[in-house]
Structures are given as structure tokens and as C-alpha cells.
Design brief:
There is one protein chain. The chain is mainly α and 212 residues long. The chain has 2 domains: 121 residues, no CATH class; 50 residues, no CATH class. It is built from 6 helices and 2 strands, in the order αααβαβαα. A two-stranded antiparallel ribbon has the order 1-2.
Length: 212
């Protein structure tokens, strides 16, 4: 996918808009061979809600069929207790997931390197985001079917040399319907009145509007 994206940028006329969507950090979590074993000797800490007994949750939480102890993806030893199987599955789950993520990270680096070397970086806005937050093992689940805190905090990073200061962090709230107005605003294009959301460009440039 990265090869295709770079080749596409070589052929595009200016200006261009590209979306590149990695999918390999979803089940069955099969990392490329060169990344397959890089976390085999790393123990991943369980999240604080890993042993949630759902006594303080709404009824659907107890019925959810996505418990890590019951994951069909791996082959834990047969003599483990349910708690041990849950712990064993989680380690395998995270080792595989993080290896796929490392592959993505390296390929995002390839894209940024291409923009730098081709002279496009200073006039290209790069947005990195996702469809949900880091919800892996929280509440003892391996999937993200509920709007819990861990799922709704979504990563959102923007690189725009000369317009956005590197390393800045805003603690102001934004929502995903702000993405499109922001992209249009940064590109100098009008935002249609019927479009929901609001450009967060002022936040990225360090000056939150009074009515934010």
C-alpha cells in the first residue's frame, strides 16, 4: 500500500488529496514476517480495567461476546485456568497487534520521508487519525463495540510545516465532524454552510477562539 501511495504521489498533478487507510491492525493480527517476533520477549501490562466484573456496568456489558479469555485466535495451553488463559491470550494478542502497528509506523515514516525528499513537505498537510481510540484489553474485551472512554478518545495529529508548530498539544475538545471543515480551511478552501463541525485550525495554531 505504501509503494502504491508513493507511486501515486509521483504521478499526481498538483494539488492532490490522498487518503491511505491501513487495515492490518485488525483481526487476525498477522504482522509481516520481519515484525512477527519482535515483541515475543516483552510483557505488555494489562489495562486497569482488565479484570472488570461488570457489576457496575449496564446489562449489555455482561452479555458481550468478546472476552479475551475466549478469543479463538490463539492456542493457549489446555491446562490453564480461565484467568491464566485470559492473561496468556492478552500477551499474544498485544504482541501481534503491536507488531502490526510497528509495520504501520515504519511505513508512515516512508511516506513522510518521500514528502521530505521530493520537496513536497513544506506545502503538504499530513493528518494522522483513526476510527477509534486505543481500546485493547480494556474491560477484558478484545473488541471495541461500546462507547467507553478508551474508545472515544481518538488520535488526531497534523503536520503542516510553517503553519503548525511541531510538538504542540491542545487540550481543547474536538469531534470527528470537525475533520472535514479543518482540512478545507487549512487548504484555503471555503467550508460549505451545510457541513457540520467547525475548523480547528485556530487550535492547531495555538489560539483557541473565545467561544470554543
Amino acid at each position: 500500500m505504501t509503494d502504491f501511495a508513493i507511486e501515486g504521489m509521483r504521478q499526481f498533478k498538483q494539488p492532490f488529496f490522498m487518503m491511505m487507510q491501513f487495515f492490518n491492525d485488525h483481526r487476525p493480527f498477522d504482522p509481516p514476517h520481519k515484525y512477527e517476533h519482535i515483541y515475543d520477549n516483552t510483557r505488555i501490562p494489562e489495562p486497569g480495567t482488565f479484570y472488570d466484573d461488570y457489576s457496575m456496568r449496564a446489562a449489555p456489558a455482561k452479555e458481550a461476546r468478546m472476552r479475551i479469555a475466549d478469543m479463538p485466535d490463539f492456542n493457549p495451553p489446555k491446562d490453564l485456568t480461565e484467568r491464566q488463559r485470559k492473561q496468556w491470550n492478552y500477551q499474544k494478542f498485544m504482541q501481534h497487534f503491536l507488531a502490526t502497528l510497528r509495520s504501520q509506523d515504519d511505513n508512515v515514516g516512508r511516506l513522510l520521508d518521500y514528502l521530505d525528499k521530493s520537496g513536497l513537505a513544506d506545502n503538504t498537510i499530513v493528518v494522522y487519525t483513526a476510527d477509534h481510540g486505543f481500546f485493547l484489553g480494556d474491560h477484558g474485551w478484545f473488541d471495541k463495540r461500546f462507547m467507553y472512554e478508551q474508545a472515544i478518545r481518538v488520535p488526531w495529529m497534523v503536520r503542516y510545516p510553517g503553519r503548525i508548530k511541531p510538538g504542540g498539544v491542545s487540550k481543547d475538545w474536538i469531534v470527528n465532524i470537525d475533520n472535514a471543515p479543518t482540512a478545507l480551511d487549512l487548504a484555503g478552501l471555503p467550508v460549505p454552510q451545510e457541513m457540520q463541525g467547525r475548523s480547528v485550525a485556530p487550535l492547531l495554531q495555538g489560539s483557541a477562539p473565545r467561544d470554543w
